[in-house]
Amino acid sequence: SEAIQMIANPVNREHRVVGAVILLMNETEKVEREQLRREFSANVSHELKTPLTSISGFAEIIQDGLVKEEDIKKFAGRIYNEAQRLITLVEDTIKVSQLDEGENPYEWEKLDAYTIVKDVCGRLREVAEKKNVHLYIDGGKTMLTTVHPILDEVIYNLCDNGIKYNKEDGTVSIHLRDLGENVEIRVKDNGIGIPGEDQSRVFERFYRVDKSHSKAIGGTGLGLSIVKHGVTFLGGTLKMVSEIGKGTEITMTFPKERKAV
Ligand code: ADP
User: Fold this and answer.
1) pTM, rounded to two decimals
2) Which of 113, 114, 136, 213 is most buried, by CB atoms within 10 Å?
């Protein structure tokens, strides 16, 4: 309201310069946000276009009778996979922007992190078994005040990556530790690792290391962006250590009690 007053009547104000600085900062922030929003829309459009082009192309050649009877099932499978990719992309995009806007339709509750980790592992068991990756939980009951769907999503994305970017017979372990005021959750894998120059960038929206390799694995490049936003939302911290060929370790700490905002 002070800023608005400044615009309305700048000359009569004694601390006009101070007012102008506040206005400038608001303007810069607005411009930056606008720029991010534009970049994000451009990225989303590009990411949506690729699977849509495939779906449309496959459907067209089937319609034109260019696919042999015995191959139709295979093509339907490809259309299905591309459509699933689109669904995930749209869902992820909604999640990122909700967190970005500070929207939170969920409740803060006192919960046991171990229960959430166990549940996530249960949901990922089948994917892990398919790749022959072993999941371990280290630690026990660890209570904290948190938002269930957000913490769940963060842990899920990290474990999912740990499995996806792993090798045959690899492991993903989740460690829970009570640090007194904080709770530490660490997700460690002995998979392919992330090159040094990419480590800070993987948290950006749509950023994927080695596009061709990542493409074969599948994903939207939004998983770690959701993790970063989620951890920030929950008032936590995040640290990544990774080495090519050795694996990746992501350590998060969350305050046990919700800090007053
Ligand atoms: P997605 O998995 O959908 O591509 P993410 O945002 O989760 O998107 O990850 C971004 C990129 O970071 C991935 O494409 C992958 O190249 C790399 N990455 C993420 N987690 C790991 C991991 N645990 N090990 C190796 N590489 C990883």
Assistant:
1) 0.74
2) 113
